[in-house]
Amino acid sequence: MGATDVDDRAARAAEYAAAVLALVRRIPAARAMTYGLVAEVVAESLHRGGPRQVGAVLAGSSGVDDDGAPVPWWRVVNAAGSPPAHHLDAALAALRAEGCPLTREGRRVDLRRAVWFPEAD
Questions:
Q1: Could you read off the pLDDT of 79-101 as tens digits, one per residue?
Q2: At what angle are helices 51-60 and 3-26 packed, to 10 degrees?
Q3: Contact 75, 33 (CB under 8 A)
Q4: Strand, helix or coil for residue 101
Q5: In Å, what is the CA distance from 4 to each residue of 12, 31, 47, 91?
Q6: Domain-by-domain residue ranges, the chain?
Q7: Rounded to two decimals, what is the model's pTM?
Q8: pLDDT number for residue 107
Q9: What is 3-62+73-120's CATH number, 1.20.1090.10, 1.10.10.60, 3.40.50.11240, 1.10.10.10?
Q10: H helices of the chain, where?
Q11: Strand bridging mode 76-77 / 33-34
């Protein structure tokens, strides 16, 4: 693999990460999206990526994007409504503070009530 290929891959990865972080920043307080939904929305314009790539972008971010804007990572959950297991307590605390609808046991987002779609913006 040549330097040009490496540069192209890095540029494509940075473009994807920027798109994911920009979308996650748009999720309103007390609402949520799944990793899969974020991936679908980003794929509409970039034609690549999936839920695992979204998770990798969020895991690799410092909680702020390149412009220093905060990224509300806790608003992105898995298909069952669960925040990341290794940040579960922090995510649930942030979701509760925002008034996000949770399931009866309070450990998952009630996606029927909380899911957000960008076109609803």
A1: 999 999 999 999 999 999 999 99
A2: 90
A3: yes
A4: coil
A5: 12, 41, 21, 39
A6: 3-62+73-120
A7: 0.91
A8: 97
A9: 1.10.10.10
A10: 3-26, 35-46, 51-60, 88-98, 111-114
A11: parallel
